[in-house]
Write a structure and sequence with these properties.
single chain, Transferase(Phosphotransferase), domain 1, alpha+beta, 14% strand, transmembrane, 5-stranded antiparallel β-sheet, Phosphorylase Kinase, domain 1
Length: 311
């Protein structure tokens, strides 16, 4: 199927992904798991969770291999790869430009929100993803976003929302406070909302969670910069914004991201409310309270591209 694993699409802590082709010519992505945790829990999680789904904004699992220690997942092929490379890698061109464009980013943020809302409320069971980040959002030929990588997912009854688990799960920079410490609240679907909000901050800022060249990354906290600009009703001052429509889209994404990363889970919107905000007018949105975990930088930072999310 992969012609002896000839073309590698990417890799991660789980193993590697290869491009493949079925006998009928259908292109696929084959995810080969080499580092299995416990008794292959992440593999079983992924198969169990994603096999219950069918949504335009959730990647389709076409099959899997389970033969002794050999385990692989076969997905539909996403020709544009992950969202990560478009918002983090300025060398990646998109129709001659480094930036996806605010209209495209707006549609991608809305598509991911719809996919998450489906996982939380549209399935016959509730699925909590626990690893929403740009790397796990794949883009098809039309840049339609699809949520992928369900290795950390938890499945619960539709009526349930609060889940119990040992230790934190997810990716640093996107994990909700309550997942680290139950003192902040109970772990629930609102933990995915937090991760989504941090991803929106990435999409707006176009920067990684950490900047290797920054002397003190704890001083450079992008959500704080967002909050300052919105609170003072300043222009966003981003080079990629060229008209009022783009300014409105960027401002809307910023406001929604701040609502999503509220420290108290009960203050965060549901994904249905996120969709309503993204589909509505920016003028109808209120600026949320400042998340108290964020702290102002000790020195002003003028260029937004140098701002990063706290690791």
């Amino acid at each position: 199927m992969t012609n002896s694993f000839k073309e590698k699409l990417g890799h991660g802590g789980y193993g590697a992904v290869y491009k493949g082709k079925l006998k009928d010519g259908w292109l696929v992505a084959v995810k080969v798991l080499t580092k299995l945790t416990g008794d292959g829990e992440e593999f079983m999680n992924e198969v169990a969770a994603i096999s219950r789904t069918s949504h335009v904004n959730v990647v389709t699992l076409l099959g899997f291999c389970f033969e002794g220690s050999k385990r692989a997942l076969i997905y539909e092929f996403m020709p544009n790869g992950s969202l990560e490379k478009f918002i983090f890698d300025s060398n990646t061109p998109y129709i001659g430009h480094d930036h996806l464009g605010w209209e495209a980013l707006d549609q991608i943020s809305l598509g991911v929100a719809r996919g998450l809302e489906y996982l939380h409320r549209g399935c016959n069971t509730r699925i909590l993803h626990f690893d929403i980040k740009p790397h796990n959002i794949l883009l098809d030929e039309n840049f339609t976003p699809k949520i992928s990588d369900f290795g950390l997912a938890k499945i619960c009854n539709k009526k349930e929302s609060i889940v119990s688990m040992l230790g934190a799960r997810g990716t640093t920079g996107y994990i909700a406070p309550e997942v680290f410490s139950r003192n902040f609240g109970k772990v629930s679907h609102k933990s995915d909302v937090y991760s989504y909000g941090m991803m929106l901050s990435n999409m707006v800022g176009g920067s990684r969670n950490t900047d290797d060249e920054a002397e003190n990354t704890s001083e450079i906290y992008f959500p704080h910069w967002i909050y300052q600009r919105l609170e003072l009703d300043k222009e966003l001052g981003m080079q990629s914004i060229t008209n009022e429509e783009d300014e409105a889209r960027a401002r809307k994404m910023m406001i929604v991201s701040l609502w999503c990363i509220q420290t108290d889970p009960s203050n965060r919107p549901s994904m249905k409310e996120v969709i309503d905000m993204l589909e509505g007018s920016v003028d109808s949105l209120q600026i949320p309270p400042k998340p108290y975990l964020s702290s102002p930088p000790k020195s002003p930072v003028d260029c937004y591209t140098s701002l990063v999310l706290m690791k």
